[in-house]
Design brief:
Rossmann fold, 2 domains, 8 strands, 14% strand, globular, Aspartate racemase
């Protein structure tokens, strides 16, 4: 069994969700009463977000690499970043990392491809929706990424930063998010939706409107456990 290394804290609520899902998925797969070894480096979300907001990409890369190196020195065999937004610089981090890293974007793309989706909506932080790191990966599989309108992006980002990141899951906000998704189905003809922030599955807990909602946390965890129990 390989030792898992998690860059967490981005934010705390999704880190808890990752931990719970990793334990649950591992026990469902292994069935011998054991638990996986997980090393968690819980980093300061505010520091990393400030780098993203100011487009200080070198600082973001350096900060995350230091976090990965801590996991490596602690004995992690492979690692992952428990957040979508930092994947803006994932390719640079992957090149510098002393251990293999599993991309949440690449694993989500594989899932969408397996479902036969050709046009998919993406919601997440403003940084994720404005950036092209999802598009670059999905273009390789001929899957078109559709993002909400600018005012909808502002709404989603505001709710993430002021409510959902802090564990506040309000019905009014859930309905507001679903209204955006419904419009994207009606006007943009999306065939699925990427929950491109690891807090979003905590408020959008199930598929709606007859299309799959791709829970990036759950998809990531499935790949993490496969890698954990894979023979060296």
């Amino acid at each position: 069994m390989k030792k898992i290394g998690m860059i967490g804290g981005l934010g705390p609520e999704s880190t808890l969700d990752y931990y719970r899902l990793i334990i649950e998925k591992y026990r469902n797969e292994v069935k011998d009463g054991s638990y996986p070894e997980i090393l968690i480096n819980s980093m300061d979300m505010n520091i990393l977000l400030s780098f993203v907001e100011n487009k200080q990409w070198d600082n973001l890369v350096n900060c995350l690499i230091k976090g990965v190196e801590i996991l490596y020195k602690a004995g992690a065999d492979f690692g992952f970043i428990s957040s979508n937004t930092p994947h803006i610089v994932f390719e640079r981090i992957k090149e510098l990392s002393p251990i293999p890293l599993i991309s949440i974007v690449e694993e989500t793309c594989k899932n969408a491809e397996a479902l036969g989706i050709k046009k998919i909506g993406l919601i997440g932080t403003k940084f994720t929706m404005e950036s092209n790191f999802f598009k670059k990966v999905f273009d390789k599989s001929n899957i078109k990424i559709i993002v909400p309108k600018e005012e909808e992006q502002d709404y989603i980002h505001h709710k993430l930063m002021t409510e959902i990141e802090f564990g506040k899951f309000l019905d009014e906000t859930r309905n507001g998010l679903l209204n955006i998704v419904k419009r994207m189905i009606d006007e943009d003809s999306i065939e699925g939706l990427i929950l491109g922030c690891t807090e979003l599955p905590l408020i959008l807990t199930k598929d709606e409107f007859g299309i799959p909602f791709l829970n990036t946390t759950k998809i990531h965890v499935e790949s993490i456990i496969k890698n954990c129990i894979k023979e060296s």
